[in-house]
Specification:
Blueprint (H helix, E strand, L loop, with lengths): L3 E6 L5 H11 L3 E7 L7 H7 L6 E2 L2 H8 L3 E4 L6 H8 L5 E5 L6 H14 L3 E4 L6 H11 L6 E10 L16 H6 L11 H16 L7 E7 L9 E8 L2 E9 L15 E6 L2 E6 L4 E6 L6 E4 L10 H11 L9 H20 L3 E2 L3
Parallel strand pairs: 1-2, 1-4, 2-3, 4-5, 5-6, 7-10
Antiparallel strand pairs: 7-11, 8-9, 8-15, 9-10, 11-12, 12-13, 13-14
Helix pairs in contact: 4-5, 5-10, 8-10
Length: about 350
């Protein structure tokens, strides 16, 4: 079977390195090209994946025209997601965009429209979707082990976006790095709320079975002098009750090395029990009426093509399947509605109706 050609466009987000690694490891994928306006940002990928000079570009149009990829991986700053999807779609490539969906719901809708016009798949990758603990929690919920879902509680984040690079390699950030980073620029879509809230609201929508809240209340905070938030607490009112989503840059430790307190992950509360599902942990805690003390359930062993987004997206392309779950624009759009509503609520300092 002929390999699918992939191009990595824009290295603003450090997750480009992780996604290219998954492409390089996939037997049915060939890295046909990479592209960024700043050549230095591609140096590590060129070295790690042995990418020849003729496959390295600084102009995205030249890159797409020369390589004719089957799909593209997009990792621009959040505020440029719509721009890059609209750039890539006319080249008839399927598009995998690294989280979050977009800086605004309007921009998310531009992305959906561009993909629809080109008749190509659009997927929004949320790395938490591939954590065995959270997949196991979704399975147990769908099996009815805790009854009808009433509440989703989410807490997640890290020490800060500049403390690590691709593959979670640790970095010690400087003040100059923070001043230059798009993560700390409001106009480029920075801030912990836009970086992390979509994780909770999109997977939360997956857990809630696609249901939407009616209203949202948000409070944000951060260090003096910053133009973006480093901490947000969001409460969403559903017909079933209240759900809470909290984002944090500035956790005591990074969850992939040592879980901080509070732990990063989800707690699901149903009519007949609860499930706690924490990032990177080998078990989830299931509490039911039959066992109120709870039991540790070993997390599911994920098998291909459900181990990472590249495996999954390649399967969708190969088999002509629609993108489903948290990566699907339909689910991620609801997550973005909650994010937009939270931004408005924080600005107005009051509860708002869900934005559409």
């Amino acid at each position: 079977m002929k390999k699918l050609k992939v191009v990595g466009l824009n290295f603003d987000h450090m997750h480009m390195g992780d996604l290219l690694r998954q492409c390089a490891a996939h037997p049915d994928v060939e890295i046909a090209g990479i592209c960024d306006e700043e050549p230095a940002r591609m140096a590590a990928a060129i070295r790690h994946f042995g990418i020849p000079a003729e496959r390295v570009f600084t102009d995205p149009h030249r890159c797409l025209a020369a390589t004719e990829p089957d799909f593209v991986v997009l990792c621009p700053a959040t505020a440029r997601h719509a721009e890059y999807v609209e750039l890539a779609a006319p080249y008839r490539a399927h598009m995998l965009v690294e989280k979050p969906f977009a800086a605004t719901l309007r921009e998310a809708d531009r992305m959906i429209a561009a993909a629809k016009k080109a008749r190509r798949l659009l997927a929004i990758n949320w790395p938490l979707r591939w954590y065995p603990a959270h997949v196991t929690a979704h399975r147990l919920l769908n099996e009815g082990r805790i009854g009808a879902l009433q509440e989703v509680h989410f807490y997640d984040g890290n020490r800060g976006p500049l403390y690590h690079g691709a593959d979670k390699i640790e970095v010690e950030p400087t003040a100059a790095m923070k001043r230059k980073s798009w993560f700390y620029s409001a106009k480029r879509g920075g801030g912990s709320l836009l970086d992390y809230l979509g994780y909770g609201t999109t997977l939360g929508t997956w857990y809630h079975g696609g249901r939407k809240p009616s209203e949202v209340t948000a409070v944000v905070g951060g260090s003096h002098g910053l133009e973006v938030d480093e901490h947000s607490v969001v409460v969403a009112r559903y017909a079933s009750g209240l759900s809470k989503f909290e984002t944090r840059w500035g956790t005591f430790t990074d969850p992939w090395t040592q879980q901080p307190q509070p732990k990063c992950g989800f707690v699901l509360k149903g009519e007949d029990g609860t499930i706690s599902s924490y990032d990177f942990e080998p078990t989830v805690l299931l509490q039911t009426r039959a066992n109120v003390r709870g039991e540790g359930v070993p997390v599911d062993a994920l098998a291909a093509p459900y181990q990472n987004p590249i495996q999954y997206f390649v399967q969708c392309i190969r088999e002509g399947r629609p993108v489903e779950g948290p990566l699907a624009p339909k689910i991620a759009r609801i997550g973005q509605q909650i994010v937009d509503s939270a931004v408005l609520s924080a600005r107005l300092r009051k509860t708002v109706k869900l934005i559409d």
